[in-house]
Amino acid sequence: MKTALVCGAGGFIGSHMVRRLKDEGYWVRGVDLKFPEFWETVADDFVIGDLREQDLCRRIVDRRFDEVYQFAADMGGAGYVFTGVHDADIMHNSAQINLNMLDVCHKRNVKRIFYSSSACIYPEYNQLDPDNPNCAEDSAYPAQPDSEYGWEKLFSERIYLAYQRNKGMEVRIARFHNMFGPYGSWKDGKEKAPAAMWRKVAMAPDGGEIEIWGDGKQTRSFLYIDECLDGVLRLTRSDWSGPVNIGSDEMVTIDQLADMAMEIAGKKLAKKHIDGPLGVRGRNSDNRLIQEKLGWRPSRPLREGLEKTYRWIAAQVG
């Protein structure tokens, strides 16, 4: 039986990955500061612990796992990442986790490790035009991420690639573009834009009003969780390291996202644009490289995933 370790298994993507791996017949160990909040873990073994502590990392990497998935990070949505209040914690905590995991995996002779980077590594100067952002993988340098979160992700990419060059490890790196779906944060201040939008729409009475940060013309793309896992597994089990984008290239404005939410909910709501943390003006996944190297691209329209996610969040709101 193949074995896998999922770091960050109490979080949104990590908890979904545990289930996917179990469905494939893997023995799975999960580790996180907490259990998944919205459903039970199906991991064979789940360790509650802090990956910033090297002793904990040594205990959980007690064998040569076939695959290690490193999703653990100090992160959240725009309200957490772009205010500047959490910069020191974000950079210190996430970098410490990655340094620890690489060290113990190397010492245990674990070869294949996946690292979840982020589209936030891309230069701000290439994302000023909301209609024409440049997020091709080779555009990352000269580097100028728009947040310390992005700088840490870029730094950690380089650590992983250095371990591959110097230590013989087989790293796989993906730059995620806004994953969403059921069983994720939707009201704790760390939720991403789709979950926050769905919550606002679900809680607003028909004919009411929702608040939107900025002018609503900023653009993004969003990828449903099942599609994300498909891309991650294909990359991890390939002979290619990346870094590569994993995301949707179906770009929408935030106002369009709100309109889709209202249409799915069957509500007519006014949009009130207010000041708030925004990030870059435009961002969209450029999928040319992953399609060329791995033959992968998202197979389903954005709306399909949004409908599933709205039903789940509406049920949580009650």
From TrEMBL:
Pfam families with a match to the protein in the record: Epimerase
Ranges for domain NAD-dependent epimerase/dehydratase: 4-247
Keyword Nucleotide-binding: no
Record lineage: Bacteria, Pseudomonadati, Thermodesulfobacteriota, Syntrophobacteria, Syntrophobacterales
Protein name stated in the entry: NAD-dependent epimerase/dehydratase family protein
4Fe-4S recorded as keyword: no
Keyword tags: NAD
